[in-house]
Structures are given as C-alpha cells and as structure tokens.
C-alpha cells in the first residue's frame, strides 16, 4: 500500500479517498499526531473553496460513533462532554501553533492508489469529520493523517508495522514523492533506534551531536536528552516544517557556521549569507550524528533562499526544551520506520525518481 505525497506550503499532503462512492481528499502527513481528520460538510468556518472536502451524507458507508464508543475514550482530553448515550462523539483538537479543529469521530472506507495505479481498499478507518477548522491552515491543508503510535493513528488502526516516505523539494511539485506502508516500505540506509520516553506515541531519537564540516560543534552533554518529567528530547516529525534546536545547541551551530562559511554575512537576527547555492557548494556541510548513523544535510535543506536573495539558515531556535527534526531537513531522504524493531532509517536518494 502506498500513496502519493505532494509539497504544499511547508507541509506534505497525502492523497487518498474516503467513502462509497469514494471522494478524493488530501491531508497533511504528520508523524506527530494520532487523529486523522478531514474537512467535512457542513463547514461552519466558511471555507467553501476547499478542493478536497468530504460530504458524509453522500457516502453510504459513513457512520458516526457515539460518545460512549470505546474509541471516543481514546480522544482523552480532546473529547467533548456529552449528555446522552445516542449523542455523537464530538472532539476539539488543538495544535501548538494555536490552530483548532472540531467535529465528529466517525468511520468509513479508506482507499489508496498504489504506484501501479491500482486501488487498495483498507476497509473502515476511524477518523475525525471536522465541521470547523480555525487558525493557520494555509494552501490546501484542511486535514491531517495521523501516523504516530497513538491508538487512533492510521498505522495503529491498520496494524502497520513499517512505513516509509520520500519527500521531494517544494520546487518539484509535479514529480515524485510517496509514502509506503507495510511490505512496500523497505527500510534501507543507516539506522538509529527509537527512544522509549514518557510519551510512547511520539518518535524520539538519540542525537549524539552535530558537525560543521569535520568539526563537532561544542554542545553541552545531555542537551538532547529527555528530562525526568518527560520534556526535552529530540523528536522526528514529518508534520513540522523546520528543524529546531534547543537554544544552547542552536547558538553553537550558528557560531560554528559564522566561522566556517566563507561568504559575506548580513546584519540581522538570523544567520544569513549573501551568495548563491553554487557559492555554497564547496562550503562545509552540516551533519547530524544520530546513534548508529549520520545524516548530512544538502545545502538546499540547510539554507533557505529569501525573496531578497539572501541564504538564511533553515534551522530554528526552539522555544522549549524540545528539539525537532523537521521535513525540510528530511527532503531527498528515504526515511523508514520499523515499529516492530524500533528503528528509523535514513537513505539519501533522489525522491523525484524514487
């Protein structure tokens, strides 16, 4: 089983279909969420131009779940109160950027188109049918495919033990980019173990250090460790655009790059250089040293070109103890997850043809 994924305003959208007859929808690939949801009719926030909106009244296999259904309990604090046993299971999901979505927990048939063009019907999947979504949902991003290890995620519901994705650069929107599940997800390249933390739903990795060229940058020991209270750590997340590092690590990286990159720098709060990607070609690379394997970033995923032509660091300073490996830095890597062995793999490839 597999599906095409396409870049859209800092995220990657997975294309699939729901219902009988099937309605094609698209939603953000998110390894940091469990609840899969799509925008449904009636839509109370006036987003009438959404290209992939699902009308449950037109699907003969759609069924909402009651608020006393066991799956409703899996929403935990996102579940809204209900008074009657026949009342639907209502939810409200809040994201770290302040965006919210609310609707009804339901189930319906999910269908995927594999790389040969064949339709794969995986049967009923529980998902959120959202009637109102507010906040930062740019482009076509009105839905999420939850791929973490929570009970409501797509991988948990389908019993998937392996999945992998290959994300193309945004300028290559018309080609490549797929996500693979089950036997089609062939793990390759270097592997690093998943870390067991206080929240087993998320994918945490051990980051031993970062290099600029052949020089390790001075980062205090334990910077990327999880705290005894469950905070901190280094999480990989396909639904987050940019990698972010704890303040002390980010400052060390910026200082090392200032000294190592032989290009004019601009006077700004961000680290930016004046030049082109060709000018950066012979400059030192940034490498993330995970336990068991290294991931060297391309220049195009280390820096982002601004409208004024500057090349600015595409790695942000975290506002918390948590550090994250975002999707920009995962571009043109075949990233595999083996949930049975607890490993994540990285293989550098050209995702346009993979």
UniProtKB/TrEMBL annotation:
The keyword Hydrolase applies. One of its GO terms (cellular component) is extracellular region. PROSITE patterns: ASP_PROTEASE, PEPTIDASE_A1. The active site is at residues 30, 237. Residues 12-347 form the Peptidase A1 domain. InterPro entries: Aspartic_peptidase_A1 (IPR001461), Aspartic_peptidase_AS (IPR001969), Pepsin-like_plant (IPR034161), PEPTIDASE_A1 (IPR033121), Peptidase_aspartic_dom_sf (IPR021109), Plant_Aspart_Prot_A1 (IPR051708), TAXi_C (IPR032799), TAXi_N (IPR032861). SUPFAM superfamilies: Acid proteases. One of its GO terms (molecular function) is aspartic-type endopeptidase activity. Coiled coil: none annotated. GO terms for biological process: proteolysis. CDD domains: pepsin_A_like_plant. Keywords: Aspartyl protease, Glycoprotein, Hydrolase, Protease. It holds the Pfam family TAXi_N. The keyword Methyltransferase does not apply. Belongs to the peptidase A1 family. This is Asp domain-containing protein. It comes from Cephalotus follicularis.
